[in-house]
Design brief:
The chain is an alpha+beta fold. 20% of the residues lie in helices and 19% in strands. GO terms for molecular function: fatty acid synthase activity.
Length: 363
Amino acid sequence: MTNLLESTITFIPLYKRGQKHTIQSFLEGIGDLYNVGLQPQIANLYPPVQFPVSRGTPMISPLIKWDHSEDYYVFRYKEKNKIFSTERIITITPDDEDFEYMYGHVIDERILLPVTSCLYEIWRTIGSLNGTDHKNIPIVFENIKFVRATHLSKRDKLELTLVIQENNNTFEILEKGNVIVSGVVRISNDIAKERLQFLAKSDDAEECMNTSDIFKKLRVCSYQYTDVPVRIYGSLDAIVSGGIEIYGQRFVAISRRPANIKPVHEEYKFIGYRDHTTISLKDAVQISIQIALECHELRNVKVIEVVEDDDKILLEDLIIPIVHEILSNLPSVQSNLTLDATENRLHSSLLPQNLSVIQPNKY
């Protein structure tokens, strides 16, 4: 029959050939009428209902339930909120997951606002002004000036004001009315032309410092950065990391808090392996630790010294206090020292404060 009907006609069977005619197939056909936009009066299929219904009439809602037997992944479209003001105020707190990473930027035992995060917030502001994700907008910063460092506190919030001038693309970041970062920002129409031409033509440019050298230098300065490829090209005075290129930078020395540690005097001396030279226990331990640290770039050192009950060892014979003294002179190394000895075997009051003393067979 369907072959004889026009294409604009919808055929809805109330029962199928070869199958027993049932109420269910009939009601399914009425449901198909709803799907094509009709409004069948299904109330005529039932006896008329007198309202209000009598007490004890069962509810219909328990008969209709959602089927949660299967899970489906659906797309989540998050609309980017567009802002119309070129001035934006952000509040930085340690509880906000968007700014949590900033509190790990510690220099000289002080939490400082990462200067690159200020540029990132300017980038986000431009994305909000254009009503799109900032990561899809190629951006160029010029003439950036980091005026002063800004401290973060885990107890107090920090409020920053970001201002972008649309007429000349200059921007400023202020904290309590004082400028901390300024510069020029613009959207690039062709980001490929903005790249350093020498790097764009050849990836074999001579590097004066590779990633390993840079991270080693940062660790000496108490910066603990990892897993980010960085290259420095001396001939171009440029730093390249992923899609970021920095060049033309100028540095001005600032005052830093002096480290509260005693100066360490070092000397380089050749010590023969089989010349029967006698050295002190402290020198032997220091040489061993320095060789281990030079061969393995360790940031966290764990040392355990075990003292048995039948060992005739006095407090001055322990090696762990010597290790503590040596590692204390290395600010970039964190130590975890443990002494395994019987209780009351040694006076713990004479041991280093950060030394853990445990009982045998208790770890």
